[in-house]
C-alpha cells in the first residue's frame, strides 16, 4: 500500500513538473511569436505604432478568449491528453505562419487597393495567421491549473506558481527572441523554433502514442523548404537583410541602385555611378553651401547618412574648393555595411558614426556650417524626438554663426498639419525658418538659421551649371515662415508624429487617386 502511495506521489510530482515546463514553453512561444510578427509584417506594412497596435491588440484578444474558453473546457475535460492536443494544434498552426504569410501578401497585393493593403493589411494578417495559434496557447494555463489543482486549500498557490512560470517563459521568450534569435537567426526561424518547442512538449505528453513525434518534422521540413527564400521578392533585388532595427533592401535598375527599408514606400538612398545628381530630393541639399558660401561651408553633419547619396554629392561638387570635414551619423550598422558593399560609401573620405543622431549631438562639441537631418526610423516616419523643440535647440547649439539646419519633411500638401507643426516648432527656436517644395511630390525642404538667407546672392553665386536648375527649383517656391499659433509646438512630452504621418499617407494616396 505504501509503495503504491509513493508511486502515485511520484507520478503526481512528475506531472506537476511537466505542467510547469509546458506553461513555461507556451510563455516562451507567445512572446517569440509576437515579436516575430512585428518583423514578418514590417517589410510589407511597416513597423509604425499603428502596426504594433494591431499586433498587441490581436495577441491580447486571442489570449483573453483563450483564457476564458480554456477555463470552461478545462472544467469539462481536466485531462492532460486534451491539453496536449491543444498544444499540438498551436504548434502546427504556428509552423504554417511563414508559408501562409507568403500567400496572404500576394493575394492582398492583388485584390486589395493599395490604401486598404497599407491600413488594414497588418490587422487582417494578425487575425488570419496569428489569432488561432495564440488563442490555443491562451488555453494552456487554465488547463494546466485545473489539472494541477488537487487540493482546494492550495489552489491559489498552484495557480500563482503556474502563471509565474508562464510569465517567466514570456520574459525568456522576449529577451531570447529580441537579442539572439531574430537578429542572428531570422524571423521565420524563430517562428519555426517556437512551433518545434510546442510540438516537442505535446509529443512528450502523448509519448504513449509515438506517431505524434513525427509532427515535429513539420517545422523542420518547412524550415528547409523556405530556407533561402527572399523575405520580400521584388524586381531587381540584389540584397536584403533583417537588422536589429529594420528590414533592408537594395534593388538595381540599370546602373542605378536604390536603398529601401521596411515597407519600401520611399527611397532611403540612390546611387548612380554615372551621375552626381540623382533626380530626387537629395539634389536640393547640394545647393545649401551657397547659402553659407561654397568656400566657407567646410564642416557638415549628416544625421541619417543611408547609402551616402548626399555626402557623395558634396564631395564631388565642393571638395575641390575647400577640404570638407563631414560627419555622417547612421543608427543601423547594417545600413553602413550594405552601402559600403553596393554604393560607394567605402570610398568616401568621411567620418561615419554608428549612433542615434540626437545622442551624437549630446556627445560632440563640434559646430557645423550645415547640419542635415534626413533620418526616417520606419521608412516614412521621422523619429518623434528629432522633431521637437528640445532637439532643435540642441541643433542650434551645434551650428556656427551663419550655419544652416536642413530637414526633409514628407507631407501631402502645404496645409499639412505635420509640416506646419514642424515649421512652428523650428520657428520657436530659430530666428528664421524657410520652406521650399521639391518638385510636385511628397518632399519639402525646410531650412532654419539664425541668419537671414539672401536668396538673390545665393542664386548669383551658383557657378556650377548642373546645379543652376536645382537652385532655381529651390528658390522658386521659397518662403519664410511666420509665427502661427494655430499649430502647437512639438515637444519631447507631446509629439504625435506617427499619427500625423499616417494622416499624411492617407491624404497623399487620396490626392493621387
UniProtKB/TrEMBL annotation:
The active site is at residue 374. The chain crosses the membrane at residues 17-37, 49-70, 82-104, 116-140, 161-184, 190-206, 211-226. Residues 221-463 form the PABS domain. Keywords: Cell membrane, Membrane, Polyamine biosynthesis, Spermidine biosynthesis, Transferase, Transmembrane, Transmembrane helix. Its main location: membrane. S-methyl-5'-thioadenosine binds at residues 246, 330, 356-357. It is a multi-pass membrane protein. Its EC number is 2.5.1.16. GO terms for cellular component: plasma membrane. InterPro entries: MFS_trans_sf (IPR036259), PABS (IPR030374), SAM-dependent_MTases_sf (IPR029063), Spermi_synthase (IPR001045). It catalyses: S-adenosyl 3-(methylsulfanyl)propylamine + putrescine = S-methyl-5'-thioadenosine + spermidine + H(+). It is an enzyme of class 2 (transferase). This is Polyamine aminopropyltransferase. Homodimer or homotetramer. Catalyzes the irreversible transfer of a propylamine group from the amino donor S-adenosylmethioninamine (decarboxy-AdoMet) to putrescine (1,4-diaminobutane) to yield spermidine. Belongs to the spermidine/spermine synthase family. It is found in: Cell membrane. PROSITE patterns: PABS_2. One of its GO terms (biological process) is spermidine biosynthetic process. Gene3D superfamilies: MFS general substrate transporter like domains (1.20.1250.20), Vaccinia Virus protein VP39 (3.40.50.150). GO terms for molecular function: spermidine synthase activity; thermospermine synthase activity. Pathway: Amine and polyamine biosynthesis; spermidine biosynthesis; spermidine from putrescine: step 1/1.
Amino acid at each position: 500500500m505504501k509503495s503504491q502511495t509513493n508511486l502515485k506521489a511520484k507520478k503526481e510530482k512528475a506531472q506537476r513538473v511537466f505542467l510547469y515546463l509546458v506553461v513555461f514553453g507556451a510563455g516562451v512561444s507567445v512572446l517569440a511569436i509576437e515579436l516575430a510578427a512585428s518583423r514578418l509584417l514590417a517589410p510589407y506594412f511597416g513597423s509604425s505604432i499603428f502596426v504594433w497596435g494591431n499586433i498587441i491588440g490581436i495577441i491580447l484578444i486571442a489570449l483573453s478568449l483563450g483564457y476564458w474558453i480554456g477555463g470552461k473546457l478545462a472544467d469539462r475535460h481536466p485531462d492532460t491528453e486534451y491539453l496536449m492536443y491543444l498544444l499540438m494544434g498551436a504548434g502546427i498552426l504556428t509552423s504554417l505562419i511563414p508559408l501562409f504569410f507568403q500567400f496572404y501578401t500576394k493575394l492582398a497585393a492583388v485584390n486589395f487597393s493599395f490604401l486598404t493593403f497599407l491600413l488594414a493589411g497588418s490587422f487582417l494578417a494578425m487575425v488570419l495567421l496569428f489569432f488561432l495559434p495564440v488563442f490555443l496557447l491562451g488555453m494552456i494555463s487554465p488547463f494546466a491549473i485545473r489539472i494541477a489543482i488537487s487540493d482546494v486549500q492550495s489552489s491559489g498557490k498552484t495557480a500563482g506558481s503556474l502563471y509565474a512560470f508562464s510569465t517567466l517563459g514570456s520574459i525568456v521568450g522576449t529577451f531570447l527572441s529580441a537579442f539572439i534569435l531574430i537578429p542572428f537567426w531570422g524571423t521565420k526561424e524563430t517562428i519555426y523554433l517556437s512551433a518545434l518547442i510546442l510540438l516537442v512538449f505535446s509529443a512528450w505528453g502523448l509519448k504513449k502514442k509515438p506517431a505524434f513525434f513525427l509532427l515535429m518534422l513539420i517545422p523542420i521540413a518547412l524550415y528547409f523548404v523556405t530556407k533561402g527564400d527572399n523575405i520580400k521578392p521584388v524586381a531587381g533585388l540584389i540584397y536584403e537583410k533583417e537588422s536589429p532595427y529594420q528590414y533592408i533592401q537594395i534593388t538595381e535598375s540599370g546602373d542605378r541602385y536604390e536603398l529601401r527599408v521596411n515597407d519600401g514606400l520611399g527611397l532611403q538612398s540612390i546611387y548612380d555611378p554615372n551621375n552626381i545628381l540623382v533626380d530626387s530630393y537629395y539634389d536640393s541639399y547640394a545647393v545649401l553651401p551657397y547659402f553659407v558660401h561654397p568656400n566657407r561651408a567646410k564642416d557638415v553633419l549628416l544625421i541619417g547618412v543611408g547609402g551616402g547619396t548626399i555626402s557623395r554629392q558634396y564631395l564631388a561638387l565642393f571638395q575641390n574648393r575647400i577640404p570638407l570635414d563631414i560627419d555622417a551619423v547612421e543608427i543601423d550598422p547594417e545600413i553602413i555595411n550594405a552601402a559600403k558593399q553596393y554604393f560607394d560609401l567605402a570610398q568616401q573620405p568621411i567620418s561615419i558614426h554608428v549612433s542615434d543622431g540626437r545622442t551624437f549631438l549630446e556627445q560632440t562639441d563640434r559646430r557645423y556650417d550645415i547640419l542635415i537631418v534626413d533620418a526616417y526610423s520606419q521608412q516614412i516616419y521621422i523619429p518623434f524626438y528629432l522633431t521637437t523643440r528640445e532637439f532643435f535647440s540642441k541643433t542650434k547649439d551645434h551650428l556656427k554663426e551663419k550655419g544652416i539646419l536642413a530637414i526633409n519633411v514628407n507631407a501631402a500638401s502645404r496645409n499639412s498639419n505635420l509640416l506646419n507643426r514642424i515649421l512652428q516648432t523650428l520657428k520657436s527656436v530659430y530666428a528664421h525658418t524657410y520652406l521650399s517644395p521639391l518638385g510636385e511630390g511628397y518632399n519639402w525642404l525646410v531650412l532654419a538659421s539664425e541668419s537671414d538667407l539672401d536668396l538673390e546672392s545665393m542664386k548669383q553665386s551658383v557657378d556650377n551649371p548642373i546645379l543652376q536648375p536645382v537652385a532655381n527649383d529651390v528658390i522658386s517656391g521659397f518662403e519664410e515662415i511666420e509665427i502661427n499659433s494655430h499649430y502647437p509646438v512639438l515637444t519631447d512630452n507631446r509629439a504625435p508624429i506617427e499619427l500625423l504621418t499616417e494622416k499624411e499617407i492617407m491624404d497623399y494616396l487620396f490626392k493621387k487617386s
